[in-house]
Amino acid sequence: MPRELAIEATGLVKAFGATRAVDGVDLAVPAGAVYGVLGPNGAGKTTTIRMLATLLRPDAGSACVLGHDVVGEADAVRGAISLTGQLASVDEELTGRENLVLIARLLGLGRAAARARADELLEAFGISGAAGRLVKNYSGGMRRRLDIAASLVVTPPLLFLDEPTTGLDPRSRTQVWEIARALVAEGTTILLCTQYLEEADQLADGLVVIDRGRVIAEGTPGQLRSSAGSGSLHVRLIDPEQRPEAARGLEQAVGPVVLEPDGAALSAACEDAARAAAGVAELARAGVALADFSLGRPSLDEVFLALTGHLAADAAPVPEEQPS
Amino acid sequence: MTATSAASGTTDTVAVRRAIASTPRPPRPGRLATALTFGWRGILKIKHVPEQLLDVTLTPVMFVLMFTYLFGGAIAGSTGAYLQYVLPGILVMSVLFTTVYSGVTLNTDLTKGVVDRFRSLPVWRPAPLLGALLGDSVRYVIAGTVILVLGFVLGWRPDGGLPGALAALGLVVVFSFGLSWVFTVMGLLLRAPNAVLNAGFTVLFPLTFLSNVFVDPATLPGPLRAFVEVNPISVLVTATRSLVDGAPDGTAVAVSLAVAAALAAVFLPITTRLYRSR
User: How far lies B3's CA from each of A129, A130, A137, A273, in Å?
Assistant: First the structure.
């Protein structure tokens, strides 16, 4: 028997003025796992989440979240989900504890129960020391943990995590990942929007790749990566001016080259270490000075190049926020 | 050292698991309880950022002092006599000016992610707005109280005594609660908090000055006087004066309340609809 679906969306469309931010997205998210929505900035990830979380009404298409229609049964959907938005969805002018007590009270906990629940979460998420401080004075990692804690005041069957680790340091990122894993172990389904292939790799069992408002690929992170070749040679130059020269050299010695958003970095799909070594040797011969190089997994950019023929950074910028 | 490293750093996986395992969903709270919870949020903000009260108290204080001592002698013959006349008017003005900030706060809120969370919660839809205005009402009471106390210090002695003054304050706060919905609509339509502030005062400033707040309309030329007399703010000021004088003008009070109810009836639904579709 196939696994139950937590989210089933067909043909979701949302346009802001002339731009179709989401242009016919289908999703089938199995319950009880992390499902990734991978894509660059402006691909339509946030708009998709906002429609599924009943914050935006789709222009066309339909979506069922845990068996409830997002338009017709919006209230029932809200009763089963939590949203951790791209902007931290907490009140910066309140303290951490007040934020959690507020949500707890709104969900129906009594005064004492709300305070107890807030303290339990603050403790578990390592924020108890800052519980009485205003959130605007929190570090990025603390704010993000508080944000997730606010989503878990009552553990939801479905949690939306919109770029939960963007802008976080590696340690905070690992902590967020641990929380996500713990949630899934307890039976929560997570829809994870991310720009990072590595994050999808770490957490997601399945994922879709979105570009310009459309789903362009679906599969496991492994399948996706192999579509871009099993690995790639990453090179960072000391002098960005030399990048055209470096690109020519790598093109010859290794294969198709991707210029990364970082002006000093580029990479080339590369299956084996010997060819990577040849590439590095070629650069040395051409007099290109390297800051560092590595043989590793393909980046989102490379996956994008393989899937779409264009780079993630070149994707047409589509406003994620409704113009107001 | 041990305390800080435990408190300010890491998530404890075991504790996280325990915390997320044991939460049965409680029954949903009632509408009023939800609105009051949002009102509590508004009051917490006043507590954490008391500076914002300066905005709404300094200007009226300045107006009381300026009009009483600069123009009072010329307008009413003596500053003492003018204070008796102008203070209820300035009470109205200062509280009404505060209502613009309801729109400004709402607009500021919308730029933050927290509104997304509120809108994704299974709560009564108008509750965040209603609660915000309940919280704002506390601000109205504070602004009004500042004026009453200042008047008393300067020698204002209302014939209606404390009960009259409190009744007047109550009327003004209720009226402001109705008027606020006009500014929440502006707060939802305009792009930036400053635009709301400017638009709000562009409406309120002329309406307040072209009223009987500062001068007796009997002294005005015909057409202006006609406008001043139908201006709802004049009616509210007349009602307020009658209450502080201890001789309530039933018609003016009733008309003021009706205007407030009408404003709320028109602009509250618009506000909720705009808030929902943002």
Answer: 8, 12, 20, 48
Q: What confidence tens digit (pLDDT) does each residue in A44-60 have?
A: 999 999 999 999 999 99
CB contact under 8 A, A324 and B278: yes
Using a pLDDT cut of 70, give the percent of chain A over it: 91
Interface of B with A in 153-182 (CB under 8 A): none
Strands A189-194 and A34-38: parallel
Structural domains in chain A?
5-226 (3.40.50.300), 232-296 (3.30.70)
| Predicted pLDDT at B189 | 93
- pTM for this predicted structure: 0.81
How far is residue B172's CA from residue B96's CA, in Å, rounded to a whole number? 8
Residue of B25, B31, B114, B130 best to disrupt the A interface, most CBs of A under 10 A: B114
**What are the E-state strand segments in chain A?**
5-16, 19-30, 34-38, 60-65, 68-69, 81-84, 158-162, 189-194, 206-211, 214-219, 232-237, 257-259, 265-269, 290-296
Rounded to whole angstroms, the Cα distance separating B51 from A16 reads: 38
Query: If you average pLDDT over every residue of chain B, what do you get?
Result: 87
